[in-house]
Write a structure and sequence with these properties.
With 207 residues, the protein is of the alpha/beta class. The protein has 9 helices and 8 strands. 43% of the residues lie in helices and 14% in strands. Helix 1 crosses helix 4. The model has no long low-confidence stretch (mean pLDDT 95).
Length: 207
């Protein structure tokens, strides 16, 4: 019986792509970074420093760039929108006594800022600061279960990226892949497709 629902953040509960694009282009001007946002977008879902490494940016610049990106993303927060039914499904889960948490590659400062900004009923935030390894490692999912006092066998993870699917598979956790997110182009080899967030309710009722 599933009693815990874990959510990725970007591309699942929030559409933050316009914010990320503006923040990245701000960095390109400030630091003379060559890769376009279209290249950055391929790696959404991975920890930020991993994305920078994949784009060939020297580790010596990671901290400075991360700080500047975070500040720019906060300044463009008004460009971020909730996905339809995000607040509805969260309220339904809370009302029906499901345990919930965010498991995201976004840093804690920006995650907490946006949770407060949208008044989301989520207390537990699993961010890159929480574990040594981020997704696609299963560590963040296991850590979420520890925080929530849940068993991974009683969890479902809702994600949208290849790294989300791989993390769920490695953790042997049920997985729902949100098709309206940012990673719908790859073959879904584990879990179930999710066409709308409302379907989470149906999945839990009939699981």
């Amino acid at each position: 019986m599933i009693d815990t629902v874990l959510f990725d953040f970007d591309g699942v509960l929030i559409d933050s792509l316009p914010t990320m694009s503006l923040a990245w282009n701000n960095l390109r001007l400030k630091f003379g970074i060559k890769p376009l946002f279209s290249e950055y977008q391929k790696y959404i879902g991975l920890p930020f420093n991993v994305i920078l490494s994949n784009l060939g940016i020297p580790p010596s610049l990671h901290l400075e760039i991360h700080t500047a990106y975070s500040d720019a993303a906060i300044s463009y927060s008004s460009e971020t929108r909730l996905f339809p039914a995000a607040l509805y499904i969260l309220d339904w889960l809370v009302t029906n006594n499901y345990k919930i948490a965010l498991v995201t590659s976004k840093d804690l400062y920006r995650t907490q800022y946006l949770v407060n900004y949208f008044s989301l009923p989520i207390i537990h935030l699993i961010t890159p600061e929480s574990t040594l390894r981020g997704k696609p490692s299963p560590d963040p999912l296991f850590h979420a279960c520890t925080v929530l006092n849940s068993n991974i066998c009683n969890c479902v993870f809702v994600g949208d990226m290849h790294s989300d699917m791989l993390a769920a598979k490695a953790a042997n956790c049920e997985y729902l892949h949100f098709l309206s997110g940012y990673g719908s182009s790859f073959h879904l080899s584990y879990g179930y497709p999710l066409y709308s967030l409302q379907e989470i309710r149906t999945f839990l009722i009939y699981y």
